[in-house]
Design a protein that fits this description.
One of its GO terms (biological process) is carbohydrate catabolic process. The chain is α/β, with parallel strands linked by helices. It is built from 14 helices and twelve strands. It has a single domain, classed as Glycosidases (TIM Barrel), CATH 3.20.20.80. The strands form three sheets. An eight-stranded parallel beta barrel has the order 1-2-3-4-5-7-9-10, surrounded by five helices. Strands 6-8 form a two-stranded parallel sheet. Strands 11-12 form a two-stranded antiparallel ribbon. It binds 6-O-phosphono-beta-D-glucopyranose. 6-O-phosphono-beta-D-glucopyranose binds next to loops.
Length: about 475
């Protein structure tokens, strides 16, 4: 038996991609609520005011807000031990800067958490999975302003106290490194923001993150708080030293966030880079202490693919994962993401060597244009993807000694794609009858992979 007996198998979603009910329960408007649908060739547009003629997929999504019991019961049937979901910040503090929380929003998550517990599933909560209330953007520029720190801390304190003893695992900010390439997703910062502005917003997020880690520990010493890295892992294009150094620099652009969250200070390479570019961070005298105290308990990250980087990499597109190079040894999904199970083992080693802390894979999965036939989907390709990734994860545990605590599939039921806003980019073990326009019965159907994941979980990863 290679995996721990208490290994957390399960799945992850985010509120903005599955809840819908965007105006119910006195909810405010978050950054994703103003993003239109796109597709593999068309980027999502951001319209600060809602245009009734446009399609905003988060508004209806798959109605998890009303159907969460049915969905969590299906997760229970698969044997989930953990369900990671996000609390939508704009349900608790509709504008972000409000001083009193919205009781209706809190009550909703009371019920979701209680239902997870009733099903024997450990709830893991992401506190912001791209759901920054746009009230903060309109009032003071969101994370560009230091006021955002107090707003986030107030929100987290409310939630930590409300669910004290009911939720143990917390992820304050989903894929914090997306601030570098997709600042609107990361924190309602304009996609046209300069690099300097992105680094200032990131600084405020890192200070806020450290503060809420300390706060979570003060409220309950059993709380476990993790960093959540958007899994960018790159290979050098060749063994030419210039490609090696280009790759090293590329990785550091993203790893610095996790370095700060785990080590409690800005790494020297980042300080040198900012100084070279003439970027002065808005540091206040208490900040070093805040960062030093607020280091995380564990590492978590999403893992979908790897990329190739070399001296000619000029731009990186985080939605399509293009770097100017492709890996000739790997196949790609229909959205161009390279499929690399061995890369999962590589990434686990990379992260464990760097921090020596327990690791949770909190997102992994493959999407396709699944078609419902006779009440199911023959998604054999998804079983292979799962089998190959779990095989490599087990090697990381058995051969390399990496301390892996859990594996969560992304989108265990079909939800709206974050990058493209499509419904037809489906990851689920459960097919949801909703199309790109939000039409459909919403009925849930088990795909063939449903029984496969159930078997994997039952055997604790032995029967692949
Ligand atoms: C992760 C995000 O980066 O990738 C999720 O945390 C997202 O929100 C997932 O859904 C897959 O990306 P996409 O664009 O296929 O939905």
């Amino acid at each position: 038996m290679s995996l721990r007996n208490d290994f957390f198998w399960g799945g992850s979603t985010s509120a903005d991609q599955c809840e819908g009910a965007w105006q119910e329960g006195r909810k405010g408007i978050n950054a994703v609520d103003v993003m239109t649908a796109g597709d593999v060739n068309t980027p999502r547009a951001i319209t600060l005011d809602i245009d009734p003629k446009k399609n905003y997929p988060s508004h209806k999504a798959i109605d998890h807000y009303h159907r969460y019991q049915e969905d969590i019961a299906l997760f229970k049937e698969m044997g989930f031990r953990m369900y990671r979901f996000s609390i939508d910040w704009s349900r608790i503090y509709p504008n972000g800067y409000d001083t009193k929380p919205n009781e209706e929003g809190l009550q909703h998550y009371d019920e979701v958490i209680a239902y997870c517990r009733k099903c024997g599933i450990e709830p893991t909560v992401t506190l912001c999975h791209f759901e920054t209330p746009i009230g903060m953007f309109k009032k003071f520029g969101s994370w560009l302003h230091r006021d955002a720190i107090d707003c986030f801390v107030r929100y987290c304190e409310t939630v930590f106290k409300r669910y004290n003893g009911k939720v143990k695992y917390w992820l304050p900010i989903n894929e914090i490194n997306t601030m570098t390439d997709c600042p609107w997703w990361a924190g309602a910062i304009s996609e046209d923001a300069s690099y300097k502005e992105r680094m200032i917003a990131a600084y405020h997020q890192l200070i806020a993150h450290a503060k809420v880690v300390t706060l979570a520990h003060e409220i309950n010493k059993e709380n476990q708080v993790g960093s959540m890295y958007g899994g960018i892992f790159s290979y050098p294009a060749t063994c030419h030293p210039d490609d090696i150094m280009a790759n090293e620099t590329f990785m550091k652009n993203y790893m610095f966030y996790v370095d700060v969250q785990n080590r409690g200070y800005y790494p020297s390479y980042k300080r040198k880079e900012l100084a070279r570019k003439g970027i002065v961070l808005p540091v206040q005298k208490e900040d070093d202490d805040i960062l030093r105290k607020g280091v995380v308990d564990f590492i978590s990250y999403s893992y979908y693919n790897t990329v190739v980087v070399g001296k000619d990499t000029k731009d990186f597109d985080l939605i399509s994962f293009t770097t100017g190079y492709t890996n000739p040894y790997l196949e790609k999904t229909k959205w161009g993401w390279e499929i690399d199970p061995v890369g999962l083992r590589y990434s686990l080693n990379y992260m464990y060597d760097r921090y020596q802390k327990p690791i949770f894979i909190v997102e992994n999965g493959i999407a396709d244009y699944d078609v419902l036939e006779h009440g199911s989907v023959q998604d054999t390709y998804r079983k292979y993807y799962l089998k190959n990734h779990i095989t490599e994860l087990k090697k990381a545990v058995d051969y390399d000694g990496v301390d892996v605590r859990g594996y969560l599939w992304w989108g265990p039921l079909d939800i709206v794609s974050s990058g493209t806003g499509e419904m037809k980019k489906r990851y689920g073990f459960i097919y949801v009858d909703v199309d790109d326009q939000g039409n459909g019965s919403g009925t849930r159907y088990k795909k063939c992979s449903f029984a496969y994941y159930k078997k994997v979980i039952q055997s604790n990863g032995e029967d692949l």
